[in-house]
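Pair request: fold both.
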Amino acid sequence: MSTHDELTAAAAKLLVLAIELSRNTDGGLPTCSQTSNWMVADSPSSWSTREHTRPIIDHWFVVSSLLEALGDSNLESYDAFLKIATNAGVAEDYLQYGLLRPLIQHWATEIDLGETEDDAISIASSALATAVLEKTIQSTFKEIVVGLALPDGPLALEDYAVLRRINENELFELGEEHIKGPHLEHDVRFAGINGLPDEEFPAEDWLVFEMVCPIRPNEAHPGERTAESLYAALSLIRDRPIVIRRFDERMSYLGIRRRFRGQSRAVDGSNKIITVTDDLEESQELVKSWPRLKRIMADEEHFLAKASVRLQEGMKRTQSEDAVIDFSIGLEALLLAGEHGELSYRFALRGATILGGSTESKREQFRQLRSFYDTRSSIVHASSAPKRAMTVDNARAFGQAALRQIWWWMFDSEVQSPIKAAYEIDAKIMS
């Protein structure tokens, strides 16, 4: 059985060979020029797009140099690596795409991030050995969050999950226009590789939600529930647009790497990226509420988790009628648990008790909730709406706001069930 040290050493020798085969005539590493565009703040209210260029390692040329050499003759270091890797259970036809290419790319990435050549070789070779022998690989998952401000530092959501500012390396990747070098010329943006429309550029105020943790092949990412909890928290904390888009998903030494895939999770129902700089109230609320929010969202059967799902679904709807139904289901789950009669009246009375402050305010909220419920009923039963019913668009806006506010009232009250919540609300009515 191959040991970690043996496989690390064999991978390092093969990597050194690939590097030497690809060196320039002056002995330097092969590089290419990466040009990217992203938006920078000229002032608190003014942004402009600027071009940025940097040299990066041409790992494509390093790979091709090694493969060309393998095609011409047998290489001792490759044969040694092949023997040790196959002894560890790796299929020979898996070596090139599953191990060699990721090994070289990993090394090049470490160089681009500032590691020395020798340290990058050590890091990449050791990671390969760990992946092969322990059947464990490093999984990285990133999503872009646009429209939310952060306090000074990153927000750690779990040991493996963080919400932070986008860094320069990620801006170079997202804003990539083209790559040019002695062995390569690639027009990235017009090839659609980075997934952003021509007129859309990343910005320095974008946030990144990143999860990095070891997993085994074919296993689901353990942070999936953390991600869903974050999406729920953002939709609850904020009633203005926040857009979440998948940026990067990669697994080392599995041959899997997907960049910006163009998929959007727009919690306001829009796929349009917007760049705004807001105050920090939402982020501070997220920091304060996250421990309890996470526990609630981890329980799919928790009544607040169910209501938050309806809020998220409603916010993503393109049709206002569908959004009204989602919001009404969420509100009914919070206000009408166990009730079978006088639903519209109880719905409005309990909701107004939470939403209203003064007696006059409660009367107005009662009237609005009855009107919302009438609109909901006309949609469900495909019937004509009563005169007091809201327009569908008004019902959508009102329902979203009411669901969010009532949800937070129950969260802050720490009620354990909708039945107990109903008791508390009815007690307020009688007091």
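--- second member of the pair ---
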Amino acid sequence: MKYTTFIFERYSLDAISHVAEFVYAYEDGPTFVERLTVPSDVKIVESETLDRALFALHLLLGVSYWKAYCPKNIVVKSGTLSTGQANFWNTVYTKGLGQFFYENNLEPQSAVNFHRRGLPPESNPRLAHATGSSPESLFAPPEAPFPVPPAAHLHPLVPMGGGKDSLVTIALLKQMNIPFHTYSLGTYPIIEEQRKHIDAHHFTIQRQIDSQLFTLPDAYNGHVPITTIYSFTALLIAILNSNTHLVLSNERSASEGNVEYRGETINHQWSKSWEAEQLIRDYVSTWITPEVEYFSLLRPLSELQIAKLFAQHPEWLPRFTSCNTNFKILEKTQQRWCGHCPKCVFVFTMLAPFVPKEQLVHAFGKNLFADATLLPLFQELLGVKNFKPFECVGTPDEMRAALTLAAKNGAYANDTIMQYTQHTIPTANEEMINSILTPSHEHDVPKIFQSDIHER
């Protein structure tokens, strides 16, 4: 059954139970309730800033339910939208769901329509057990620019994903003697293990998706902008915990798309792109709060550069994973690396020039360069077959550069993949390698967080 109208009904945050509820409905159809449980060690205090963050989360989390049937009519009962806000959410949905539209053969350019003028809020309190703010004040943009706190007052929050990138961010902050807190959306064994080795207070929000979503008849399914969801849930913690900065670990390689489709560049990693970072940064400062600055510390760096930095900390090699089998909603695994997905192939390749072969093979459980069945994945990652896989992987040039560097010590010379690439793929020259390993000037890293990696 197809529905014609999707409704953002209401949201609330109970200051006693610490449970936030976000309610959605299809007109003449099912109603959904998604819940976030905020950690008990943060104090919930009513504020207009908190309400703005909850409203943004209501709009963002709705993407999982809207995409089930993609109705043209979107009704926002929980608040009002300015033109700028509506444009932002139209962009987040359209580009963040690019892969979803591609895989379901849907038209992306006219699918999403947040109205420039939503319905006025009715008398429903947003914060249970607290008095409400006036409708006029809830959606007026903050006016102050980003504050510039002295170094002693820096209080950043770092989202952790279990992979190498957030660990490199943490290492850089430690080198700069900047204290920080960490955050994760959900509890995962790999992040719990990493926490034990990081001297920082950690916050976790538990997410409960409405189970009806997984049993809807004839519903569409597919990729959602998960990094954006991660970012806005982290922002909720940053506001409640008075963090001054929300420090992401998104690299410059994430800005490169996968495939062209109906006039749009489809990018699996759009939520991690430079475009998305700028849009989210502006939205947070304009429509939620200027007191939490959003940026990625690793934005100037390529995946290969990050791998080189990560390799300087061998203690993390057995304690990280980027393989998505560890983070599936409905399936759990004890396996650190599956050894046959694009993420495993890509990360193994990035680390191969910088980590001794014996250590790398031990960490991954096998030598991926010796597995001939992985050749099609290597070809896609190298850009010689189909297109770059829909995963959080870097560019074909980075693959070429990493394989060229890995070939220099001869450790992998007899392996199937290395022999194939040396005879078939053009070697990366020194100019290409230097360019990939040189930081970009395209970033919004505040000066107080900059180090030598942000200089050319």
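Observation on the second member. The first helix runs from residue 48 to 61.
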